[in-house]
Amino acid sequence: MNDLCVDIGYKSINHVGEQLCGDHVDIAQGEDSTVIVLADGLGSGVKGSILSTLTSKIISTMMTAGLPIEECVSTIAATLPVCSERGVAYSTFTIIHLIGNQTAELIQYDNPLVILIRNGEHVDYPMTEMTIGGKQIYKSIIPLQADDLFVAMSDGCPHAGVGATYNLGWQREDIVAFLESVSVAGYTAKTLSTILIDECNKLYGGEPSDDATACVVRIRRRVPMNLLFGPPANRDDCNRMMSLFFSKEGKHIVCGGTTASLVAQYLQRPLRPTLAFESPDVPPISEIDGVDLVTEGVITVNKVVSYAKNYLEDNEEYESWSLKRDGASLICRLLFEEATDINFFVGRAINPAHQNPNRPINFNIKMNLVRDLSECLERMGKRVKISYF
Q1: What is the C-alpha to C-alpha distance for residues 345 and 224, in angstroms, rounded to an integer?
Q2: How do residues 286-321 score in pLDDT, each as one tens digit?
């Protein structure tokens, strides 16, 4: 094993007037592998959605079980329902099979070819042509490197702007140049897919004439992060909690006023409030030498949870937290974009200030915030460990 890990993100836009997308992405985790399948079903709407969902689910499930691609393709051909209008059962697909975070196996059928960006530049990769069940399929084996970007697309991406911005659509070389320009910024896979699809939507004039999906796979080194939230239930555990927290590798985030005071006492360094209200709905941050970020507690973390849920949906609030300097936005950038492994140190002490029945904050809300945030981070592909005190 190595210290590489994978960051996966995707986004779709629907054909104008359709509620369902004809593209589908399925991700399946094996014992030492990850299978990502992007399928594009024939047509759009309900038909396309059924075909692409079946295709991606069947392939990801079978490949995770170790079955060969030949059997996967033959199973799809025998399973997909036949379109009553066209008389065919048709769904294109792109498979990115990551093995041990060391090798990527690409299997591509009739979708735009996967783009590989390495060190900020487009890289060509070898392809072997196979014929399976009358279908022309390309297979590639690529050793992985840190910061590799694999970008899979449905044909709605290169078709963007046909007859409008571009006569022949957004050509592959144009997409490559666009990706090269944004890849060096260190965006997450989810953000990169959002940026790419938003650009497609602009080229369509906000009315896509086809479903468009981008799936980005980013290879990166592991980055640990630690977050301390709340004092321990037993004050005698304070030194043990602080010792464990600061012994961990990586950056350290402290959330909560009482918690920050205890940290300042433990480190024997002053706590300096900034009193800078960067955002009207998020309390200002503070500073302690030796701590990377000090924020208020429940209100700030609640905002982070809200951003995390949106990130996993349409990511429309990205521009808010990616640019602001308030505590919640700073936590988001550290946890969503920088961290891969996150250690939560959660104190179970009940804050007397939160026990007023006229206030909406209580102990259960604090615990629920930790649970919701950890679940969101795990869905982002992070490793999360929670220690309670």
Answers
A1: 14
A2: 999 999 999 999 999 999 999 999 999 888 898 889
